[in-house]
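Sequence in, structure out. First:
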Amino acid sequence: MGDVQQWTVTEPYLKLDCGLGEAPFHESSSHTLRFVDIVKEKLHVIDLDRGPSSLKSFDVDAISTTADIEGTDDELIVGAKYGYAVLTRSNGKLDYIKHVWDEHEEPGKAKRMRMNDGACDSHGRYWVGAMNDPKVQSPTNEGVLFRLDPDMSLHRMLEGVTIPNGMGWSADDKIFYFTDSPTGNIYKFDFDASTGDISNRRVFFHLDMKNAVPDGFAMDAEGCFWVALCGGGKVLRLSPEGKIVGEVLIPTRMVSCPGFVNEELFITSAEEEDPDKYPESVEFAGSLFKIKVGITGLPLHRFRRQKLFRS
């Protein structure tokens, strides 16, 4: 690995005890960073000009992913327990705008599933994967990747998913990337930006590491991927061809998701699943980390809501 650039993080930027920290998202207009704790049902927000002492935490209902909505700063669109919802920040109210399960067609699925990772594409569609809720049962392959369009139409893009995680698009908008963690694979698809259709699935990157899986990822301005290895204690940098060209070493094992803030990478983590076997991972488990990597990320898109709708 002589050609692999290496960065080392020795301590957290913010020491927390998240059960499952996820979805770091930089709000450039306010220079704040938000991220969620799916397990403990929290939304954390940091004013990056003021630093870790500015942390504000809000109780939320099983939110796993968030995105901005075009035309408003007070509302976020989120993936929640039963589907897509709008979170109003000024009053903390969560309103579902699209339930993704029909109890008559799929009995019991709303109870045993929850939404997981997500991202908006260049046309303002919000893609979110659903998985079995670990509070109810262990993951199986009955997960689904959904796409919610600005007109509020819902589309099932992939079936047979286990734990849907990092997703994103190439800078030229021709390729869609999607992670199904237990398979060890990040897949790539041909993407039609005008219709939102995907086709021609193939493996972009396969992780062959004991006790580790690819989790969330972020993409940089050079077309490279920064992939969290949950169970692996690091973030890999992959070239556009899927080759490992860098790694960020993190002082805890359960690394979950990276996100860019200018030339810095902020990285969430989760509680250590096996503290007896990995005692060195416990101290900083669930914390937020950062490292300067010297390159910026691709811009994040907003959801382009066309009308208000409740279902």
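Second:
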Amino acid sequence: MIPRSIFISLPRPRPSSTARFPSTQLFRRAMSQKSLFQSIKEDHEEMYEYHDQYERARARGDTDAQTRWVRQLTWEIARHAVGEELVVYPLMEKHLGATGVQLADHDRAEHQQVKERLYALEGLAPGSPAHHAALAEIMRALHHHNDDEEIKDLPLLERAIGQDASRDAALSFKKTKKLVPTRAHPSIPNKPPAETLLGLLEAPIDKIKDWFATFPEEEEMKGAKEELKTRDHDAAAGRAAENRL
């Protein structure tokens, strides 16, 4: 399955009937009702869902399905990370003072580690023990990072900027994700304006690669989207469980 355009990233990198996608006006109206916290958390839930789908494929020995779900997971993580670095972290630095700068620097450092691991993952064979171990380490790091954002970073930011600005930031975040790279590029700076410029240069190349990559089939994605309707990871409970280890 391939994306319609190598320059504009749709909700999924695959062709489909135009009837499946809402008009720009409806999209803006729906997004305007979501807070930044809700938009970020939705992305986190998608990461966990795609990884769960990978684990099921591994349990049944389906290497092709593992490859598809890892590509979908990578696609989501890469776009999410750059979207945060261009939209969310500058807001933290602007509105949370020295604390915001410290939190943003910490989050960027964790993103960099994930990008480096994702980049290395592309050189490993799906289905191999080394590939599985590397992916497991990525997901452990992501859970810790995502929980930090949901427990501390985003609540602090939303209290500082208010509901209207939060909804505006959510829309900006979603729009930004359409224009950024879909693969990990650990060598690109992780702050604007350099990240903005270099990301725009890399994004079309990534989208060309996506033309030839294998993503989940439509029925597979339909099942995942149904499960996403009821997913609700409890970040506080996850952090408590992590602390008990």
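Remark: Confidence is low (pLDDT under 50) at residues 1-22.
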